[in-house]
Write a structure and sequence with these properties.
The complex is a heterodimer. Chain A is of the alpha+beta class. Chain A has 12 helices and 9 strands. Chain A has 2 domains: 2-91; 109-338, 2-Layer Sandwich (BirA Bifunctional Protein, domain 2). Chain A has helices spanning 2-18, 22-33, 38-46, 54-91, 109-123, 137-140, 172-181, 224-239, 292-297, 314-322, 329-332, 335-338, and strands spanning 127-128, 134-136, 165-167, 188-197, 209-219, 245-252, 255-264, 281-290, 306-313. A 7-stranded mixed beta sheet of chain A has the order 1-4-5-9-8-7-6, sandwiched between helices. Chain A is rod-shaped and about 135 Å long. Chain B folds into 6 domains: 2-38 and 157-184, 2-Layer Sandwich (Phenylalanyl-tRNA Synthetase, Chain B, domain 1), CATH 3.30.56; 45-152, Nucleic acid-binding proteins (OB fold (Dihydrolipoamide Acetyltransferase, E2P), Beta Barrel), CATH 2.40.50.140; 197-396, Phenylalanyl-tRNA Synthetase, Chain B, domain 3, CATH 3.50.40; 403-470, Phenylalanyl-tRNA Synthetase, Chain B, domain 1, CATH 3.30.56; 487-683, Bira Bifunctional Protein, Domain 2 (BirA Bifunctional Protein, domain 2, 2-Layer Sandwich), CATH 3.30.930.10; 700-787, Ferrodoxin-fold anticodon-binding domain (Alpha-Beta Plaits, 2-Layer Sandwich), CATH 3.30.70. A 7-stranded mixed beta sheet of chain B has the order 30-34-35-39-38-37-36. In chain B, strands 3, 4, 5, 6, 11 and 12 form a 6-stranded antiparallel beta sheet that branches. In chain B, strands 14, 16, 17, 24, 25 and 26 form a 6-stranded mixed beta sheet that branches. In chain B, a hairpin with a 2-residue loop joins strand 37 (636-646) and strand 38 (649-657). Classes of the chains: A alpha+beta, B alpha+beta.
Chain lengths: 341, 788
C-alpha cells in the first residue's frame, strides 16, 4: 500500500516537473487529484479494509494528495516566475540612450553678484533702496556737495537730457532721496543697487552703462572704525575668509575723510602677481564718512548726525571674482558666456 | 602730476628712498600711478671722436675711433653730422636702448663696430633738443668716460601721482615737498627768492574791469637774450612732461611747476600800449592763440587786453601776436589769479586744456603770486641776461588770510573711533606745518593758504591720513536695525528664479538704443527721450521696450550657431514723466526636448502663454486674462498676439513677432512677451493665502463634445460653462479640438468637466442635471450642438 502511494507521488512529481504551461498543470491536477484519479480507486479499496486500519490508510492518502498538491503549487510558482522574467527581459531598454534635454537657465552674473552683496548687507541689518535712473542735477550733484562748476564733476562725464535732467552717474542720489524720506531722522542703514551711466566710450575696461551698489549708514554714533569693520567683513564674505583690507586716502565730494579700499590679492595671497600688478593689493571700492554738507543739504544737523557711505562697481567685483578681463562681455549676452555662471 | 626725484631731493638734507616714497604716498596721500627712470638706459658713456674716416664700401657711413676714457672703440656711425673732435653719447656693446634695442658687436660691410653713437631720439628724449639733426653733440666741457645722462641732468626718476580734486596743492613741486616732509617727518628747506631790480619805474599800468581776476602782477623785464635753457632746466621740464622751448618760456613753465602758479610772458614790444586791462570778452570778439587757431569768444570768457583788443585768453592760452620769439628783448611777465570756473568753461568750450588752465581750474595759492613772479625774474636774470625794471604793477584783491579751524580732541575721536592724544595731534599738525594753539585738547589750527580747507572734516582727514589708516580699529555700527527685502524685491527675485528654472537665461542690455529701436513695441506710441550729448547715434535714445535689445541678443547668438535662445530681462523703460520696469521674454528654438523620441520641444504661442500663466500662478496672481488686442500691437503678428490684462488693466502683450520683423532679423518663429512689473507687484496676493480643506468626497468627470462656429473662441465656451455651472464645477479642460471639411465652417471641441462637492458625495442624477443645464446654455448662447 505504502509502496503504491510512493510510486504514485514519484510518477506525479516526474510529470509535474515536465509541464510547461498552466493547462498541462491543470491536466495533471485532474489526473492525480480529480474524481477519476488513482486516489479515488484507492479510496474505494479503503472500504474493504478493517475499520481499525482505515484511519491510518486515510491519513496516508491525504498526505500523499497534499504532497502532490504542493508539488503542483510549487511548479506553478516556478512557471509564473519564468513568465515574469520573460516579460521583464522583453521590456528592457537601452539605458544609455540620452535623457530629455532640460534647458538650464542662468541668472545674469551681475544679478548674482548684486544678490550676493545684498544678502551680506541684509544680514548686517540693511534694507535695499532703489531710485530713478533719470535724475535731476540737484539730486545727482548739488545735494551731494557737487555744486555746478565743481571740478570733481569732470570725474563723472554725464549724459544730459535737458540742462537739469541727466542719467544718474552714480546711485548716490538714492542716498539723498532716502535721507529726505526719513523724515523722523531715525537711524538709517541702506544699500542702493542700480544702473548708472557715464559718458565713456565702451572698451575693455569702460562701459557707458554699468551697475553700482552703495551703502549708507547715518545715525548719531557711527564712526570711521565702523566703516573699516564693515569693509573688512564685506571683503571677507566676497573674496574669502583670509582676506585683509587696506585703506588709502582718496577724495569724493560726498564723503570726508574719503578712502579707497584695497583687498589683499586673492590670487597670490599678497605675494604679488599679474592680477594685483605685483602690489599684493586690489582696489575694490571707495568709501568715507558722510560729508557734513550732504547731511546739512538733506536737513540733518551735522553736529548731531554722522555716518559712512561706501560704493562699489558691480562689474569690477564680478570681473575680479570670476576672472573676466573684458567688461563688454557682461553686456554682449553671448549665451556661451551667460550660461557659465 | 609728474615729479622729478632729483628736484624733490633739493628740498631735503638727505636722499629720498624712492620705494619708501611710493609707499608713503600710496598710504598717506595720493595714489602713485608710476615710478620710472626718466631715460631708461644704463651704461652710457661720454665719448670723444678721436678720428674718423669714410667707410671704404659705404659712402654714408663713417668709421670712428671713439675714446671712452679706458678704451678706444671703433664705432661705425651713419649720422651726417658726426665729426672729429666731438664729444658724443656712446652706447657700448651690451647696452640696451629704449624699445629693448640691444647694442651688439657687428660687422658692417666687413668692418667691425663696437657700439653706437646716440641721438636724443634714440634715448627717447628728443624734446631735449628739437633742433637735433643726427647724433647729439655735447659741449666741449663734457668729461670723457662720464655718464652723459648725469651731465645733461637726465639721470632722474619720475614719480607720477594720480591727483584727486582736493589736492591742487600737489600740482607744484613745493607742495609735493611739503607733503613729503610731513609724511617722512623730515626737515624742509624752502629757498629764498632774491631779485635785483634796476631803478627805473615799471612802465606798464594794470587794470581790471571784471571780478573774475582777483590778482594780477605785471613785470616788465628788459635786455632779454632768448636762447636755449640750461640742461638742468630742460631736464626738469622734461621730467614733468613739458617740452622745452626757449629760456623765457621755459622759466615761466619751471616756476609754474615749482609754485603751481602759471605765468605768462608777452613780448612787450608787440603790445601796442602801456596798459593791460583784464576784462570780460565781448561775444564775437576774436583772438588767434599761440597754436595758430583763431578763437571766437563769448561774454563770460576772461581776456587780457592791451586796452582795445585781447592779447591772451586769461589762464588758458596766450595770443600769437605777442608771442616770445628769438628776437624778443623786452617782455611782460604775468602772474595772476583768475576765476577757476571761468577758466574751466573757456578751456572746455575751446578744447584747450593746458598745464596752466588745469591749475587755475583747481584753484591756486594766491599768496604766492608775487613770489612766483619774483622767482621767474631771478631765473631770467641768471639765464636770460634780464634786467628787471622797477617793481611790478598790480592789483590784488585776493583774500590770503590764514583760515582758522577749531577741532577738539573729543570731536576727532568721536568721528574716528580711535583714541588720539594731544601729543599725537600736536605732532601731526607740526609735521603738516600748520601753526596751532592747543588748550587742553581744544585745537585752534591756522591753515596756511597753500592748503585750501573749509571745515573741521578737512582737518580730521589730514590728521587721520598722517596718523595712518592702518591704526584705525575695527568695529560695526552699533545701531540695531532689521534688514531684509521688501515684498517687491522678493517678488522680483522669485520671477527671476522661476524663469531661470524654466530654462531661460537672463540678459543685461543697454538702456540707450537708436531711435528706431527706442519706439518699437510701444503700445502707446509715446514720445521718446533723447540724450542731448550722445556718444553715438546708436546710443542716443532711451528705450520704450526691452525687446529690441533681446532680438539683438537673439541675432548675435544665432549668427554664432546657438540654436536655442530663450532669454529674459527685467529692466527699466523710460517715458517722459516716468520710468517703468518691465519684464521681457523672448523664446526661439526648442524647449526641453528629446529628439530621438520625436519630441522636438516645439515652442509656439501656447508655450509662451503657458509659461506666463505658470509664472502668474507661481506669483499667486488671480485676476488676469489674455485678450484680443484692442489695437494691433505693432511689430507683432496680428493673428498671433494677445494683450495681457491684469485686474482689468492692459499691462503688456504676448505673441509671435511680425513676419516682417522676423524677416529683418533673419530668424523664424520668435515668440515674445513683455509686461510692466508694477501690476505684478500690486496684484500679487501677499499674506492672503488661507488653507482650504481638501474635499473628502470623490469627484465625477464627464466628457462632452460640441460643435460650434469656427469663430467661437475657446475662452467663450469656458466662460459660458463657468457662468452656468454651480459651485460644484471644479474644473473644465479642453482635451481635443477637431476641424474637418465634413464639419463645414464648424469645429468640434471636446471638454472634460469635473464636478465635486466639498461636503457630500454627488449623485449621478445631480451631475446629469448640471450637465444638461450647461449644454442647453451652450446651445442657447453659442449655438453649440452637442455631439453624441
Amino acid at each position: 500500500m505504502e509502496t503504491k502511494l510512493k510510486r504514485l507521488i514519484l510518477s506525479a512529481e516526474s510529470e509535474i516537473q515536465k509541464t510547461k504551461t498552466n493547462n498541462e498543470l491543470l491536466d495533471i491536477k485532474a489526473k492525480y487529484l480529480g474524481k477519476k484519479s488513482e486516489f479515488n480507486d484507492l479510496m474505494q479499496e479503503m472500504k474493504n479494509l478493517p475499520a481499525s486500519e482505515r484511519p491510518l490508510f486515510g491519513k496516508l492518502i491525504n498526505e500523499a494528495k497534499q504532497e502532490i498538491s504542493n508539488l503542483i503549487d510549487k511548479q506553478k510558482q516556478i512557471m509564473e516566475k519564468a513568465q515574469i522574467n520573460q516579460r521583464l527581459a522583453s521590456e528592457a531598454i537601452d539605458i544609455t540612450m540620452p535623457g530629455r534635454q532640460f534647458k538650464i537657465g542662468h541668472k545674469h552674473i551681475l544679478t548674482k553678484t548684486i544678490e550676493e552683496i545684498e544678502d551680506i548687507f541684509i544680514g548686517l541689518g540693511y534694507v535695499i533702496k532703489e531710485g530713478p535712473e533719470i535724475e535731476t542735477d540737484k539730486y545727482n550733484f548739488e545735494m551731494l556737495n557737487l555744486p555746478k562748476d565743481h571740478p570733481a564733476r569732470e570725474m563723472q562725464d554725464s549724459f544730459y537730457i535737458t540742462e537739469d535732467l541727466l542719467l544718474r552717474t552714480h546711485t548716490s542720489p538714492v542716498q539723498v532721496r532716502s535721507l529726505l524720506e526719513n523724515a523722523q531722522q531715525l537711524p538709517l542703514k541702506i544699500i542702493c543697487p542700480g544702473v548708472v551711466y557715464r559718458k565713456d566710450d565702451d572698451d575693455q575696461t569702460h562701459s557707458h552703462q554699468f551697475m553700482q551698489i552703495e551703502a549708507l549708514v547715518v545715525d548719531e554714533k557711527t564712526i570711521l572704525a565702523d566703516l573699516k569693520g564693515t569693509l573688512l567683513l564685506v571683503a571677507k564674505k566676497l573674496f574669502g575668509e583670509n582676506r585683509e583690507i587696506r585703506l588709502r586716502p582718496s577724495y569724493f565730494p560726498f564723503t570726508e575723510p574719503s578712502v579707497e579700499v584695497d583687498v589683499s590679492c586673492f590670487k597670490c595671497n599678497g605675494t604679488g602677481c599679474s592680477m594685483c600688478k605685483n602690489s599684493g593689493w586690489i582696489e575694490i571700492l571707495g568709501a568715507g564718512m558722510v560729508n557734513n554738507n550732504v547731511l546739512e543739504a538733506c536737513g540733518y544737523d551735522s553736529r548731531k548726525f554722522q555716518g559712512f557711505a561706501l560704493g562699489m562697481g558691480i562689474e569690477r567685483i564680478a570681473m575680479l571674482k570670476y576672472g573676466i578681463d573684458d567688461i563688454r562681455l557682461l553686456y554682449t549676452n553671448d549665451l556661451r558666456f551667460n550660461s557659465q555662471f | 602730476m609728474k615729479i622729478s626725484i632729483n628736484w624733490l631731493n633739493e628740498y631735503f638734507n638727505q636722499q629720498i628712498d624712492k620705494l619708501e616714497l611710493v609707499n608713503k604716498f600710496n598710504l598717506m596721500s595720493q595714489e602713485v600711478a608710476g615710478l620710472s627712470k626718466l631715460v631708461d638706459v644704463e651704461g652710457l658713456l661720454i665719448g670723444h671722436v678721436k678720428s674718423l674716416e669714410k667707410h671704404p664700401d659705404a659712402d654714408k657711413l663713417s668709421v670712428c675711433q671713439v675714446d671712452v676714457k679706458n678704451e678706444l672703440l671703433q664705432i661705425i656711425c651713419g649720422a651726417p653730422n658726426v665729426a672729429q673732435g666731438q664729444k658724443v653719447i656712446v652706447a657700448k656693446t651690451g647696452v640696451v636702448l629704449p624699445g629693448d634695442f640691444k647694442i651688439k658687436k657687428v660687422k658692417i660691410r666687413g668692418i667691425e663696430s663696437n657700439g653706437m653713437i646716440c641721438s636724443l631720439a634714440e634715448l627717447d628724449v628728443q624734446e631735449f633738443d628739437v633742433k637735433e639733426k643726427g647724433i647729439y653733440v655735447l659741449p666741449d666741457d663734457a668729461q670723457v668716460g662720464e655718464d652723459p645722462l648725469k651731465y645733461l641732468g637726465l639721470d632722474d626718476y619720475v614719480l607720477e601721482l594720480d591727483l584727486t580734486a582736493n589736492r591742487s596743492d600737489l600740482l607744484s613741486i613745493r607742495g609735493v615737498a611739503y607733503d613729503t616732509a610731513c609724511m617722512l617727518d623730515w626737515d624742509l628747506n624752502i629757498p629764498d627768492v632774491r631779485v635785483i631790480r634796476e631803478g627805473v619805474e615799471n612802465p606798464v599800468n594794470i587794470y581790471t574791469t571784471t571780478r573774475d581776476s582777483s590778482t594780477y602782477y605785471g613785470q616788465v623785464v628788459e635786455n632779454i637774450k632768448v636762447k636755449d635753457s640750461p640742461f638742468w632746466l630742460k631736464s626738469r621740464l622734461i621730467s614733468a612732461g613739458i617740452r622745452p622751448i626757449n629760456n623765457v618760456v621755459d622759466v615761466t613753465n619751471y616756476v609754474m611747476l615749482e609754485y603751481g602758479q602759471p605765468l605768462h610772458a608777452f613780448d612787450y614790444d608787440k603790445i601796442s600800449s602801456d596798459r593791460i586791462i583784464v576784462r570780460e570778452a565781448k561775444t564775437g570778439e576774436k583772438i588767434v592763440t599761440l597754436d595758430g587757431e583763431e578763437r571766437s569768444l563769448l561774454a563770460g570768457d576772461v581776456v587780457i587786453t592791451d586796452g582795445t583788443k585781447p592779447i591772451a585768453l586769461a589762464g588758458v592760452m596766450g595770443g600769437l601776436e605777442t608771442e616770445i620769439d628769438e628776437k624778443s628783448s623786452r617782455i611782460l611777465l604775468e602772474s595772476a589769479v583768475f576765476n577757476p570756473v571761468k577758466v574751466r568753461r573757456t578751456a572746455n568750450r575751446l578744447n584747450l586744456k593746458s598745464e596752466s588752465s588745469s591749475r587755475f581750474e583747481k584753484g591756486i595759492d594766491a599768496s604766492k603770486t608775487l613770489e612766483a613772479l619774483n622767482r621767474a625774474c631771478e631765473l631770467l636774470i641768471q639765464y636770460a641776461n634780464a634786467i628787471v625794471i622797477g617793481r611790478p604793477s598790480f592789483y590784488n584783491t585776493a583774500n590770503t588770510k590764514d583760515k582758522i579751524i577749531s577741532l577738539s580732541l573729543e570731536k576727532l575721536n568721536s568721528i574716528v573711533g580711535y583714541t588720539f592724544d594731544e601729543e599725537t595731534v600736536e605732532n601731526i599738525l607740526t609735521r603738516l606745518r600748520f601753526s596751532f594753539k592747543n588748550k587742553s585738547g581744544e585745537f585752534r589750527v591756522k591753515i596756511p593758504n597753500r592748503r585750501p580747507m573749509e571745515s573741521y572734516q578737512d582737518l580730521v582727514e589730514e590728521i587721520v591720513r598722517i596718523n595712518g589708516y592702518d591704526k584705525i580699529p575695527l568695529s560695526i555700527p552699533e545701531t540695531p536695525t532689521q534688514g531684509g527685502l521688501s515684498d517687491r524685491q522678493k517678488t522680483k527675485r522669485s520671477i527671476r528664479s522661476f524663469l531661470v528654472n524654466r530654462g531661460l537665461n537672463e540678459t543685461k542690455t543697454y538702456s540707450l538704443v537708436n531711435e528706431e529701436n527706442a519706439c518699437k513695441f510701444d503700445l502707446k506710441a509715446t514720445e521718446i527721450i533723447k540724450i542731448m550729448n550722445p556718444l553715438t547715434q546708436e546710443r542716443e535714445c532711451l528705450r520704450h521696450s526691452l525687446l529690441p535689445s533681446l532680438t539683438s541678443v537673439l541675432s548675435y547668438n544665432k549668427s554664432r550657431k546657438i540654436e536655442d535662445v530663450q532669454i529674459f530681462e527685467i529692466g527699466n523703460t523710460y517715458f517722459k514723466d516716468t520710468e517703468t520696469e518691465k519684464i521681457a521674454i523672448l523664446l526661439n528654438g526648442s524647449a526641453d526636448k528629446s529628439t530621438w523620441q520625436k519630441d522636438e520641444g516645439q515652442i509656439d504661442f501656447y508655450y509662451i502663454k503657458g509659461l506666463v500663466e505658470a509664472l502668474f500662478e507661481q506669483l499667486n496672481i488671480k485676476n488676469y486674462a489674455f485678450g484680443i488686442p484692442s489695437v494691433n500691437i505693432v511689430n507683432l503678428h496680428p493673428g498671433i498676439s494677445a494683450e495681457i490684462v491684469i485686474q482689468g488693466k492692459v499691462c503688456g502683450f504676448i505673441g509671435k513677432l511680425h513676419p516682417e520683423e522676423e524677416h529683418e532679423i533673419g530668424v523664424k518663429d520668435i515668440y515674445v512677451c513683455e509686461f510692466e512689473t508694477d501690476n505684478i507687484y500690486k496684484s500679487k496676493g501677499f499674506h492672503n493665502t488661507i488653507y482650504q480643506e481638501i474635499s473628502k468626497y470623490p469627484s465625477i468627470k464627464r466628457d462632452i463634445a460640441i460643435l460650434v462656429d469656427d469663430g467661437v473662441q475657446a475662452q467663450k465656451i469656458i466662460d459660458v460653462i463657468k457662468i452656468n455651472a454651480k459651485k460644484t464645477l471644479k474644473a473644465v479642460e479642453i482635451f481635443d479640438i477637431y476641424q474637418d471639411i465634413s464639419l463645414g465652417s464648424k469645429k468640434s471641441i471636446a471638454l472634460t468637466l469635473e464636478f465635486m462637492s466639498a461636503d457630500r458625495t454627488l449623485e449621478t442624477k445631480e451631475v446629469d442635471d448640471y450637465l444638461e443645464k450647461i449644454v442647453s446654455s451652450l446651445e442657447e448662447q453659442l449655438s453649440a450642438q452637442l455631439r453624441k
